[in-house]
Amino acid sequence: MNTWTHIAATLDGTYLRLYVNGTLVASKRENDPIKVTNAPVRIGRDLPQFNKQFKGRIDDIRIYRTALTPEQIQSDMNTPVAQAAGHSSRSAALMSGGPSASPQTYTAGQQL
Fold this sequence. Notes:
Blueprint: E1 7-11, E2 15-20, E3 23-29, E4 61-64, H1 70-77, H2 81-85, E5 91-95, E6 103-107
Parallel strand pairs: 4-5
Antiparallel strand pairs: 1-2, 2-3, 5-6
C-alpha cells in the first residue's frame, strides 16, 4: 500500500515481456502484430462497455515505437518523464525511437 511500482511491457515481434521494477517477471511468445486503429489509447481502464478501471494512481506514462532492452528499461525506470522529456510530471511521452529519441509529450487526459 502507498508504494509506487514501475511496470514495463515490450513487444519485439516475437515475445511480449513484462517487467516489474526493472525485473523480467513474465514472457509469452506473441507473433501477432499490434493492431493499428483510430481508437484512443486506454491506460488503466478497459473498453467502455466493461466499465473496469484501475484502482490506484498512474503517473509517468511512456510509449515507444520500439521494444526497449532490459538496460533501457532500467534507465527509464530511474529517469522521471519530466527530466527525460523536459516537461512537468503527470505527462506521457510518445517516443519515436528508444529512450534517447526526441519525445512528444502529452498532458494527463489528453488523447495520444
